Amino acid sequence: GEQVEQLPSSLIVQEGASVLINCSYTDSASVYFPWYKQEPGKRLQFIIDIRSNMERKQNQRLTLLFDKKTKHLSLHITATQPGDSAIYFCSAGGSGTYQRFGTGTKLQVVP
Amino acid sequence: AQTIHQWPVAEIKAVGSPLSLGCTIKGKSSPNLYWYWQATGGTLQQLFYSITVGQVESVVQLNLSASRPKDDQFILSTEKLLLSHSGFYLCAWSVGGVNERLFFGHGTKLSVL
Questions:
Q1: For chain B, which residues score pLDDT lower than 50?
Q2: How far is A79 from chain B (nearest CA, A)?
Q3: What chain A residue is nearest to B49 in terms of C-alpha separation?
Q4: Are B31 and B94 in contact (CB under 8 A)?
Q5: Can you point out the beta strands (E) in A1-111?
Q6: Is B12 in CB contact (< 8 Å) with chain A?
Q7: Candidate from B32, B43, B107 with C-beta closest to A103
Q8: A49-69, pLDDT tens digit by residue?
Q9: Which of A38, A45, A100, A89 is nearest to B46 (CA)?
């Protein structure tokens, strides 16, 4: 079945630094790739998405890159703040209503 | 504005006991509804989804069942809990066709002892 892997599994950065979170999937039928953020004590929250007919999408400090050929996505977060500390999940959706979540990346931003 | 409410917030149950978790969505007509399970520190696994009242599709078999008795309500249940049922249960909704962003509830933390 579909596998969605994320790297790294965790990282600690200084406030102001940029981070890159990588996500790879296996199912060629996947066409929709939303990303979510899970902060301690808060509900899982959608942050950005991209569809398979696009290569790049930006939302303020977030940039999402998509490579259909290699089945790879990268989430770039610039100018990180302590409020960015959370677990980040990529997800892949195909022709059905099933969205498979990645393994998660725990980001800690220290002042 | 749409709101999603899950109940209870947390449960501590004994192995072999029954369970019922609920989810209500207000402010959105005919949403697609989902149940997800998250092991502590782990990824999310989709359990069930429903596109309309009375219609529920199972994604994985975990000795759980789900029902949608009303347009705005989704229920997750089992008659006999296992230790492996412990974790975090998240209800979510989306609208439109497939492959749209999900909106999640706060979740229910279940501890089976």
A1: none
A2: 25
A3: A97
A4: yes
A5: 4-7, 10-14, 19-25, 32-38, 45-51, 56-59, 62-67, 72-77, 86-93, 99-101, 105-110
A6: no
A7: B43
A8: 999 999 999 999 999 999 999
A9: A100
